[in-house]
């Protein structure tokens, strides 16, 4: 079983990603294929969780679009991610911010960390 994980980790190339955690506002530049054309779309929101470790690591980004909360899960080592920008660091006390789903408006704000 360990041999399979080892081979998988060797086959996936690790990307250099900035240091971010739950509560940080990030912009994910994601490649989108439409037919034979390729464009980059920016998905900006709050990272509500980082999950797993190694090659299978993912992170979830939540944003509010037209009054509706939208969450998207990105694999960290995905070849479709062009780059990740950290816009601000949030001051939160937990690793998974699922409680943000129930909050709207000013209640859903996250304090920013002083750098």
UniProtKB/TrEMBL annotation:
Organism: Mucilaginibacter polytrichastri
Domain of life: Bacteria
GO annotation terms (biological process): translation
Name of the protein in its database record: Large ribosomal subunit protein bL19
One of the Pfam families matching this protein, by short name: Ribosomal_L19
A molecular function GO annotation: structural constituent of ribosome
Keywords from the named record: Ribonucleoprotein, Ribosomal protein
GO cellular component: a single term: cytosolic large ribosomal subunit
InterPro entries to which the protein is assigned, alphabetical: Ribosomal_bL19 (IPR001857), Ribosomal_bL19_CS (IPR018257), Ribosomal_bL19_sf (IPR038657), Translation_prot_SH3-like_sf (IPR008991)
Name of the encoding gene: rplS
UniProt similarity note: Belongs to the bacterial ribosomal protein bL19 family.
Protein's job: This protein is located at the 30S-50S ribosomal subunit interface and may play a role in the structure and function of the aminoacyl-tRNA binding site.
């Amino acid at each position: 079983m360990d041999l399979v994980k080892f081979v998988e980790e060797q086959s996936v190339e690790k990307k250099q990603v900035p240091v971010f955690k739950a509560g940080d506002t990030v912009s994910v530049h994601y490649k989108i294929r439409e037919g034979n054309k390729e464009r980059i779309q920016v998905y900006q929101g709050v990272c509500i969780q980082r999950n797993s470790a190694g090659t299978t690591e993912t992170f979830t980004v939540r944003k509010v679009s037209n009054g509706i909360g939208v969450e998207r899960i990105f694999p960290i080592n995905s070849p479709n991610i062009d780059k990740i920008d950290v816009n601000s660091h949030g001051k939160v006390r937990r690793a998974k911010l699922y409680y943000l789903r129930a909050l709207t408006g000013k209640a859903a704000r996250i304090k920013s960390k002083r750098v």
